Amino acid sequence: MKYEREIFGLLGFSLILCALYFALIETGPAKYFTAPNAQKLFYFHVPSGLITYLAFLMVVGGSAVFLYNGSEYADQLAKSTTELGIVFGFMSLVSGTFWMKAEWGGDIVSRFLTDMRLATTLAMWLLYIAYFVYRRQPETLQVKKNAAMLGLSGMLMVPLSYLSSRYLRSHHPVIVGTDDQGSLDPSLRIGLYMGLFGFLFIFIFLFKVRMQIESMERDILRSKMEGA
Amino acid sequence: MRLFVIILTILVLSSSASAGCREKECMPEEFVTDVVAGDGDGWYFYYDSVFSIGTNWFIIVESEGTSFEGYISFEFGNNLTKSIDVNFESGTSQKVENGSISFPGSTFSDEEFNRILYINFTEDGGEQTDNFQLKIQINKPPADDMIYLWGGMTVFWASIGAYVLYISSKLTQLRER
């Protein structure tokens, strides 16, 4: 489809606007929370966190395929989704920090050092920062292979971060797959799904643009090398 | 010396703190009335006419001597009722001291002025003998977590906006090349 990418972008933007209206205007301050206004971050914090996991899993997948058969497309995918994972991870980490400060209080640094969900998520994010920095050098085959090895380590980091709040010491709430999932108020789910699909469509839009940039860069590099 | 300053600061701060105070001296309002059923007993109610949402609200009840026996109910309407039993064993002085009830801070969620608190005196037989009304102002303190909400929200839009600018400028550069 000609305008497929733009449609995803527009749809994502519209859904985010709906989620914003729902979170800030339609629903009043949340009950049973110490910080009833900061709770509104929930509608975007959770989706950005889930998209971060999705992006880093794509890096893992791309890296694995590249190491297996040397596919250029897989390498391109891993490199592009790393950037997106870093952006959405930043959103999730910082918004979570604001919410945590309002709801739990206390010292932020010590929270990051003692709460395993926060510590492992930050570690995962820093790992992909390292990947991103490593890829900012001339792209030889060896660099791509090393980057793929680094990207593959997310195979450990992503599940570790996701499962840390269930099995390790953490205050971070767990909803998906627990008894609390059923207790989520239906009105809360509407906002959450709007935020989730909004961010997902924006992610697809940005991913497609980023992949186009990556192809263009590789084409330019190839034509330069052929010219030389 | 440093420890002394810390202790002194804690003492000064704790003496001025009033959030958890349940003594009648801490209550800014006093309501005195005679109850007909108790042959004109004097009853004293100490309370704060401002109910701050999020903070437990107390009312203290006292009587220097009474012949009333039954229960006193405090009712905001809509089944928001609490009560105190007033029954004396024979031989005890018939005084009520520091009787109190509390309503949790989550009782109300919206601001409301002149909300009526009905105080009903009901004898053991079930006959309501007297009732009084107090006007309470339900106050919603300003939320102090808005800064965190706006801080967090800014991060989302600034991050996406900055990334879109970054890739669009990159795309433009590549197209020019």
Structure notes:
- The complex is a heterodimer of chains A (228) and B (177).
- The longest helix of chain A has 42 residues, at 186-227.
- Chain A has one domain (4-23, 41-227).
- Chain A has helices at residues 4-26, 42-69, 72-103, 108-114, 116-134, 141-152, 154-167, 179-183, 186-227.
- Chain A is mainly α.
- Chain B has a five-stranded mixed β-sheet with strand order 3-9-8-5-6, with no helix packed on it.
- Helix content of chain B is 26%, strand content 38%.
- Chain B is built from two helices and nine strands, in the order H-E-E-E-E-E-E-E-E-E-H.
- Chain B is rod-shaped, with a radius of gyration of 27 Å.
- Chain B has two domains: 22-139, Macroglobulin (MG2) domain (Immunoglobulin-like, Sandwich); 146-177.
- By secondary structure, chain B is α+β, with helices and mostly antiparallel strands.
- Chain B has helices at residues 2-16, 146-176, and strands at 29-35, 41-47, 50-52, 57-63, 70-75, 81-86, 96-103, 112-123, 128-139.
- Chain A binds chain B through residues 28-29, 31, 35-38, 40-41, 44-45, 48, 83-84, 87, 90-91, 94-95, 98-99, 101-102, 202, 206, 209-210, 212-213, 216-217, 220, and chain B through 106, 109, 143, 145-146, 148-149, 151-153, 155-156, 159-160, 163-164, 167, 170-171, 174-175, 177.
List keywords for this structure.
heterodimer; A: 228 residues; mainly alpha; B: 177 residues; Immunoglobulin-like; five-stranded mixed β-sheet; 2 helices
What is the name of the CATH architecture of the largest domain in chain B?
A: Sandwich
Say what the CATH topology of the largest domain in chain B is: Immunoglobulin-like
How does the overall form of chain B come out from the CA principal axes? rod-shaped
Question: Order of strands across the widest beta sheet of chain B?
Answer: 3-9-8-5-6
Structural class of chain B comes to: alpha+beta
Instruction: Please tally the β strands of chain A and state the result.
Output: 0
What is the total tally of β strands of chain B? 9
Element-level helix/strand string of chain B? HEEEEEEEEEH
Average pLDDT for all residues of chain B = 79
Number of helices of chain B: 2
Ranges of chain B where pLDDT stays below 50 over 5 or more residues in a row are 10-19
Largest sheet features of chain B: 5 strands, mixed
Q: What portion of the residues of chain A fall into strands of 2 or more residues?
A: under 5%
